[in-house]
Amino acid sequence: MQSRESRGLVLYNQNYREDDKLVKIFTEISGKRMFFVKHISRSKLFSVIQPLTVADFLLKINDNGLSYIDDYKEVMVFKHINEDIFALSYATYVASLADAAIADGVYDSQLFAFLIKTLELMEQGLDYEILTNIFELQILERFGVNLNFHECVFCHRTGQAFDFSYKYSGVLCSEHYLKDLKRSHLDPNVLYLLDCFQTISFKDLQTISVKPEMKQKLRFFLDDIYDTYVGIHLKSKKFIDDLSQWGDIMK
Ligand SMILES: [Zn+2]
């Protein structure tokens, strides 16, 4: 077992026996790990093990079993996200996507930074639906899915009114629509936006604005992409879907 200091994001905690907890933390230096906390009701760790809390942790990391939290400092909580059930449900979903995308114990500081940055932008009040789309899109390669929305599969032209083809797992320009008789008949703007989202910088995000109708089209298409290529069903995603139905009823 080795002592290490690392920034970490709490993904979730769960009860373990009467007064103990298991806490899943995505650490910057050592990937996702499960930590054991004894006597949580009397523990100074009580507040720091809440989901989506970020802190600098002093950890005892065990490669063959449970790890332990010795101490922590520099705690940061996402106050605005926690106050808004919609933002919170999207933030929870992106965190659980990161959890699903890589195995435990695998070092991935790039994904760690991307997740933290996404949450920080949600906290700042940027559009959480669009941030979630960008996260879903950019994390696809962690699931082994590489999709090119930038150029036609056949002629490699760019900047066209593309349609998506599941048969070729890529986009077709209008000259090559006929290559796939079951092409998706998508609004080309959906693919244009996804192409932007694959390479968008966080700076450009400050100015992005997408209409509700287009957001819904993005949502439907990304759901299809995840159903077809990834095939995971996260509880946190189901919650978002249910929440949006509630939203519709209230309107
Ligand atoms: Zn083409």
UniProtKB/TrEMBL annotation:
Residue stretches making up the DNA replication/recombination mediator RecO N-terminal domain: 1-73
One Pfam family named in its UniProt record: RecO_N
KW DNA repair (keyword) present: yes
Signal peptide residue numbers: none
Gene3D superfamilies the record matches: Nucleic acid-binding proteins, Recombination protein O, C-terminal domain
UniProt KW DNA damage keyword: yes
Keywords annotated in UniProt: DNA damage, DNA recombination, DNA repair
Top-level taxon: Bacteria
Function: Involved in DNA repair and RecF pathway recombination.
Membership in a protein family: Belongs to the RecO family.
Protein's name in the database: DNA repair protein RecO
Source organism of the structure: Streptococcus dentapri
